[in-house]
Amino acid sequence: MARKFQQFGPIYREKLGVYESVNIISPRDAATLFQAEGTLPERFSVPPWVAYRDFRNKPYGVLLKTGEAWRSDRLMLNKEVLSPQVVEGFVPLLSQVGEDFIRRARAQVEKSGREHWTADFTHELFRFALESVCHVLYGERLGLLQDFVDPDAQRFIDAVSLMFHTTSPMLYLPPALLRHLNTKTWRDHVQAWDAIFSQADKCIQNVYRDLRLQRKSTKEYMGILCNLIMRDKLPLDDIRASVTEMMAGGVDTTSMTLQWAMFELARAPGVQEQLRAEVLAAKREAAGDRVKMLKTIRLLKAAIKETLRLHPVAVTLQRYTTQEVILQDYCIPPKTLVQVGLYAMGRDPEVFPKPEQFRPQRWLAAGPKHFQGLSFGFGPRQCLGRRIAELEMQLFLMQILENFKIETMRAVEIGTKFDLILIPDKPIYLTLRPL
Ligand code: HEM
Ligand code: 2DC
C-alpha cells in the first residue's frame, strides 16, 4: 500500500477479489471518514471468519455482528471491559502475570549459567498474553508461565496462529464460496476455529459451574465473564461468543507488539535508558503502587504508541460509508468500503518526519496529533480489548525495564509480513540481562 500511495497519490481505488475499496492515507481524510460514521459503524467483515460461523452454526460476537444487535452487545461489554473504573481493577491481575514472567526470566538466566537469557521470545510471549487475558476474563490462572504447560492451552495458542495464517489466502473470497470449498487451507481454518471454540467453551463452562456451585469468592475481582453473567443483561450465548473472541484476540496482538517494542528498545539503548529512568522514578514516588505509577509513565505510554506506529497489528482500518463523504477531490458514495492505510500512514514522512526513527518523544512534543494515533481504531467500533491490551503492555514493559537490560544480538534487518495481522518476517532474537 505504501508503494501504491507513492504511485497514485493519497487516494486510490482498488479491487481485491470481489471487493472494491477506496484507500486513503492522510490523517485529515481519516478524520473526515470517522467523523461521518454514525452510531453503527461497520468495518470489512473478514469472509473466512463469517463463513466458519455460518458453516458450523456458531453465534457471532461483537467482532462480526452488525446493526443494533452489535450495538446492544457492545454497550454491555464496554461496561465490563473498557470503563475506567473496571479497568483499574485489572491492574493487580495483570501485574501478577508480569511478575511471573520476570520470575521465569530470572530462572532461565540461572539455568543458562551465562548471566543472560537469549531467545526468540515469540512463544514465551504468546503464553504470557494468553495467561494475561484469561486472568482478566475468567479471574483464574492457567499457569502458562510454569515449566509444565497445559497441552490444551498450547493447542489453543497454536490454533489462533493457524487461524490467522489460513485467513489471508482466503481473505477476498466471498463467504458463500468458501463454505463449499474443500481446500487444505479451508479445512485447516475450520479445524483452527473448532479448537478455539472448544477450548474457550471449556474455560467458560468452568467459570459457569463454579459460579452456580458458589465456589467463587465474591470478595476479590471475579473476572469479566462472571460479571457479565451476574449482570444478567446479555443472553449467555452472546456472552460466550464475545468472550471467545476476546480470548482469541488476546494472544497474538499484544505479544507481537511487545516483541516489537523490546526489539526497538534494544536497538535504541538511549531511549531504553530514558524509559528505565522514568519507570524507576515513578516507582520511588509511588512506593511501588502500580496504579499510581501508571499515571506518571508518559514516555513509556508514548513508546507503545510509537511501536504501534511502526508495527501496527492491523494493516488498515476500514469503514463502510453510510452517507456521501468528500475526500480530497472525490465524492465517495454511501456503502463504499474505505480503508485507512495504517501501516502506510505510520511510515509516511509527510505525517511523521523521519518515520524510520523510533522516537517516542514525538508523541509528547507540541503540535497537532489529529487522527495520528489510530492503532486501536476509532470511535464506538474501536478495539474492545484496547484497555486490557494497553495495561498489559504497560505493566509488562515496566516490569521488564525494572529488572533487565534488553539487548539484541546482531543488526539483522527485520521486515514485516502480512499474516492477516502484521508480524515480523523472521525470528527476533533478544537478550534479557539482569540489571
Ligand atoms: C478490534 C487493534 C488487542 C479484541 C480491533 C481493531 C483494531 C484492533 C485496529 C478494529 C477497530 C476499528 O475498526 O476501529 C488491536 C491492537 C491490539 C489489540 C493494536 C494490541 C496491541 C486486542 C485484545 C483483544 C481484542 C487484547 C481482546 C481482549 C478486539 C475485538 C475487536 C477488536 C473483540 C472487535 C470490536 C468490535 O467490532 O466491536 N482491534 N487489538 N483486541 N479487537 Fe483489538
Ligand atoms: C486484515 O484487509 C486485513 O484485532 C483486511 O483481536 C482488513 C481487516 C479487517 C479486520 C481486522 C483485520 C484486517 C486484522 C485483524 C483485526 C481485524 C479486526 C479485529 C482483528 C484487527 C486489518 C483483531 C486482531 C482481533 C481479532 C479477534 C479474533 C481472533 C476473534
Structure explained in plain terms:
The protein has 435 residues and is α+β, with helices and mostly antiparallel strands. Helices cover 54% and strands 12% of the residues. It contains 18 helices and 11 strands. A hairpin with a 1-residue loop joins strand 9 and strand 10. The longest helix has 29 residues. (3alpha,8alpha,22R)-cholest-5-ene-3,20,22-triol binds next to helix 12 and strand 4.
Kindly estimate the percentage of residues that lie in beta strands according to DSSP: 5-15%
Which strands sit side by side, in order, in the main sheet? 1-2-7-4
Number of helices, where a helix is a run of at least 4 consecutive DSSP H or I residues:
18
Helix content: 40-55%
**Global shape:** globular
Rounded to the nearest angstrom, the radius of gyration is 22 Å
Secondary-structure element order, N to C: HEEHHHHHEHHHHHHHHHHEEEEHHEEEE
Which cofactor or ligand species appear?
protoporphyrin IX containing FE, (3alpha,8alpha,22R)-cholest-5-ene-3,20,22-triol
- Gap between N and C termini, in Å? 42 Å
Average pLDDT taken over every residue: 96
What oligomerization state is this entry in?
Answer: single chain
Largest sheet: 4 strands, mixed
Strand segment tally: 11
Question: Class by helix and strand content?
Answer: alpha+beta
